[in-house]
């Protein structure tokens, strides 16, 4: 997949921007705070319907304006693809695909395939499970967009169930109250809780199994990608291995999906229980913890509390991996995502995803820069942001298109000019 043109209107620092984009490697160069990341963030937003920097849309709209518009042209499997997105904080965002309105915004998921690596990704290793769950869900929705609806249904039920638990906690502390129409409020709430249990188990089992299957598919790519990032030998193009051989490579890096539901099932890493098995165990666990959940006013079991554990040398990477090892692991996660889409999802006709490296090279030591440059050189399209040309490693070979970015503008540099 290739981005061919990007138009921004009132998006972040750009009242208006029209930028043609070439295949191959494009480097956005400019001082900090000039708007380089804003450009790649817009592309990422089209892929995931979220920003990698802020949790809310208000920051995406140019100061003093009410609406931002992203318009992008792509080539997907050799055919033109036009995507338009209108962002209006406080209201429903609207999208058009090939000039036609998209009834639900989630209908855009899966159309634009991109993989982004940014300094914030260090949090995948060092921060809380929420970011790792989000990483899995973003990739899952690109591969199988229907799970965005499953996740939305799960979140809706989770909110309703948790609100009911809070009400039941208040009733327990203050008495059950007067009966209405001969029905005891506590009995009515308990019956309602059982209904929410059924719904949460239904959507939760579907989501949990999809995440687990994704982690199982990512594992060989992750281990292999870590070797390529962390060792000079692994980054050599001659050592590139097809997907079916990567699971045989011995690597110190690994990922495991952690869930009390899987522990209860006795599921081993790499296995995949059925949705029914997961559903039944989840439902049983929900029922068993009713008293505890009412006391705490919160739902304590389900995929909203699961984690993707990242391991190094058979230890949890969080708290164990050094700073350099953590960078290598974060890079390996994104490269594993890229390879999964490129090598295993290409038969869907979507082709290779766009690879975005947002201010990455400045965060890496010289050897990791060189390895990463060697790995991504042959990618169909790479978008790179950097404040300094000198951060671009010599191993990033081939024709490089440079775009000079200053506040409110982005202008392609003359092709004859050097990148470094």
TrEMBL record:
One of the protein's GO biological processes: SOS response
SUPFAM superfamilies reported for this sequence: P-loop containing nucleoside triphosphate hydrolases
GO terms for cellular component: cytoplasm
Sequence positions that bind ATP: 30-37
Keywords linked to the UniProt accession: ATP-binding, Cytoplasm, DNA damage, DNA repair, DNA replication, DNA-binding, Nucleotide-binding, SOS response
Record Pfam families: SMC_N
Limits of the RecF/RecN/SMC N-terminal domain: 3-390
GO MF terms, alphabetically ordered: ATP binding; single-stranded DNA binding
Main location: cytoplasm
Cellular localisation: Cytoplasm
Protein family according to the UniProt entry: Belongs to the RecF family.
Functional note: The RecF protein is involved in DNA metabolism; it is required for DNA replication and normal SOS inducibility. RecF binds preferentially to single-stranded, linear DNA. It also seems to bind ATP.
Protein name as catalogued: DNA replication and repair protein RecF
Organism: Candidatus Brachybacterium merdavium
């Amino acid at each position: 997949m290739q981005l061919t043109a990007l138009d921004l209107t009132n998006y972040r620092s750009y009242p208006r921007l029209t930028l043609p984009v070439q295949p191959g490697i494009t480097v956005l160069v400019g001082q900090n705070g000039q708007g380089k990341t804003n450009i790649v963030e817009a592309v990422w937003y089209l892929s995931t319907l979220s920003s990698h920097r802020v949790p809310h849309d208000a920051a995406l709209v140019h100061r003093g304006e009410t609406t931002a518009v992203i318009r992008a042209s792509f080539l997907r499997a050799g055919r033109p693809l036009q995507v338009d997105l209108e962002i209006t904080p406080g209201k429903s965002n609207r999208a058009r695909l090939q000039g036609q309105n998209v009834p639900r915004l989630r209908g855009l998921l899966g159309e634009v395939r991109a993989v982004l690596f940014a300094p914030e990704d260090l949090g995948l290793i060092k921060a809380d499970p929420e970011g790792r769950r989000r990483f899995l869900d973003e990739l899952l929705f690109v591969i199988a967009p229907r799970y965005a609806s499953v996740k939305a249904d799960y979140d809706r039920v989770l909110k309703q169930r948790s609100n009911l638990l809070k009400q039941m906690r208040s009733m327990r502390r203050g008495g059950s109250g007067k009966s209405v129409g001969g029905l005891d409020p506590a009995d009515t709430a308990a019956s309602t809780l059982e209904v929410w249990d059924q719904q949460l188990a239904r959507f939760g089992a579907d989501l949990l199994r999809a995440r687990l299957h994704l982690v199982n598919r990512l594992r060989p790519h992750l281990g292999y990608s870590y070797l390529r990032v962390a060792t000079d030998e692994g980054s050599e193009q001659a050592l590139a291995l097809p997907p079916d051989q990567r699971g045989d490579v011995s690597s110190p890096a690994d990922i495991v999906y952690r869930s009390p539901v899987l522990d209860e099932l006795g599921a081993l890493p790499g296995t995949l229980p059925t949705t029914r098995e997961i559903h039944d165990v989840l439902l049983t666990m929900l029922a068993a913890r009713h008293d505890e959940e009412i006391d705490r006013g919160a739902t304590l079991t389900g995929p909203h509390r699961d984690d993707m554990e990242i391991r190094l040398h058979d230890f949890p990477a969080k708290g164990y991996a050094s700073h350099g090892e953590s960078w290598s692991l974060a890079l390996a996660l994104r490269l594993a995502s890229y390879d999964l889409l490129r090598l295993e999802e290409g038969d869907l006709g979507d082709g290779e995803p766009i690879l975005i490296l947002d201010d990455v090279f400045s965060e890496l030591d010289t050897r990791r820069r060189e390895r990463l440059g060697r790995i991504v050189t042959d990618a169909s399209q790479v978008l790179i942001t950097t404040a300094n040309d000198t951060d671009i490693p010599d191993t990033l070979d081939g024709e490089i298109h440079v775009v000079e970015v200053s506040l409110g503008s982005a202008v392609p540099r003359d092709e004859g000019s050097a990148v470094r």
